[in-house]
Amino acid sequence: MARVVKLAQQIAGSEASVLITGESGTGKEVLARFVHARSQRAKKPFICVNCAATPENLLESELFGHEKGAFTGALARRIGKFEKADGGTLLLDEISEMDVRLQSKFLRAIQERVIDRVGGSRPVPVDIRIIATSNRNLSEAVRDGSFREDASRIRCNPGIFARLRSFATNILRFNDVENVSDTRYRITLGGLDALRSLHFM
């Protein structure tokens, strides 16, 4: 755990995209919030999108937003998560579940820092840092065709393997006031008790 925390602290100060991999329930989002809280973007938004839980036909609009009239039911312009995270950090939880078609738009967003709203006629600039999580091996996802090889280049940026098993006593490091000064990202006493009760802890 000490090694993971040290690496997270080192990465936090950079602007590089980050990939956090690990089994479900091992604290990947906790670690992502830790990285954000220690970054220069700490006072800016931290926006999370669960790519696995959002229906495929809604994820594009959820991420990139849409213009009025872009599709049936689009009665007004809607700002997506990329724009809501402007200046801050966007967490793409379980990015390996993102549809291959959307991965090309995601790739453009991380390369050019612009996004296209659904039904939009001009690109929208965004200033964000991307943290992605996955419970799958992206190399395997590339091989089976479920993840684009070029989109997987996020792997070339700093990555963290977030295996928190066997480190129950060290979970307190994430709650240390010195490490996480923003109280929004600190774990309550009740939360700590709940974490200790989980089978993997």
Please explain how this structure is put together.
The structure is a single chain. The chain has 201 residues and is α/β, with parallel strands linked by helices. Helices cover 31% and strands 13% of the residues. α1 crosses α2. Mean pLDDT is 78; it is low at 163-170.
What labels describe this entry?
Rossmann fold, two-stranded antiparallel ribbon, 7 strands, 13% strand, globular
Helical residue percent band: 25-40%
Q: Indicate the CATH topology.
A: Rossmann fold
- What order do the strands of the largest sheet run in, or round the barrel if closed? 2-3-6-1-7
Report the principal-axis shape.
Answer: globular
In N-to-C order, the SSE pattern is HEHEHHEHEEEHEH
Quaternary state of the chains: single chain
What class, by secondary structure content? alpha/beta
Strand content: 5-15%
Rg over alpha carbons? 17 Å
- What is the count of helical runs? 7
Q: Tell me how many strands there are.
A: 7
Say which CATH homologous superfamily is assigned.
Answer: P-loop containing nucleotide triphosphate hydrolases
How many domains comprise the coordinates? 1
CATH domain class: Alpha Beta
Assign the CATH architecture: 3-Layer(aba) Sandwich
Low-confidence stretches: 163-170
For the sheet with most strands, the description reads: 5 strands, parallel
Q: First CA to last CA: what distance?
A: 13 Å
